[in-house]
Amino acid sequence: DWEGDVGKHYLESARFRLKLSHANVLGVNGGIHKMVGNCSLTSGVGAKWDFVGQGFAKEKEFPLSCKGKAFLHDARPFWAESEFRAEESLIALSGGGEKEGILWKCEAHDIDAGVATFFQSLWKLVDSSYPEIEFEKGRIDGSAQFLYAKEWNISLQTKNLFCRAPCLQVGCCEAALRLNSEKNGMFQFHDLG
């Protein structure tokens, strides 16, 4: 359902409701099938979404879910939060209004090769120029924080990782990477041998 103008400022006065039943999103190396759920947006108030489905990548299928909400009123600071789950993997994204802009935070836990391939496959539907990384095995944990384009920090940890890109191949038992907008960052690498 759609209520509101379709003009230049349609989101300022719109109401939007979407209900999915057995939807499919297919990427090159993964996707979603049997997706069901709801999404709603009321301009000046907020948005809410809740979807479940069956994800697939790397010859593996897994249950997945995505839910979240956002507050979009001008009288108070903007905030949004969303959580994505696929088997043991969890990605949580949140953002809130600050004086300098929106502070975005992301936490990722127990991302395996299948889930990493799944996300890449979906992202390539949005940006086909995205370089593809082939994740063969391993797990990734990480966190990131961005304050608009001014300040940022990223932290990644891997275990038993093996992946390759067109001009690079990486294999390690454990690795940790920390980068931020103020320092050059630190990289620790523990070889498989």
Protein model, in words:
By secondary structure, the chain is mainly beta. It contains one helix and twelve strands. 7% of the residues lie in helices and 66% in strands. The protein is globular and about 50 Å long.
Tell me, briefly, the overall form.
globular
Major beta sheet summary:
12 strands, antiparallel
Structural class of the secondary structure composition? mainly beta
Q: Tell me the helix content.
A: under 10%
Name the beta content range. Answer: over 45%
Number of helical runs?
A: 1
Described by its quaternary structure, the protein is single chain
Low-confidence stretches: 187-193
From the alpha carbons, calculate the radius of gyration and give it in angstroms.
19 Å
Overall average pLDDT: 84
What is the gist of this entry?
The chain is mainly beta. The protein has one helix at 113-126, and strands at 2-3, 15-26, 30-42, 46-57, 60-71, 79-86, 89-98, 101-112, 134-147, 151-165, 168-180, 186-190.
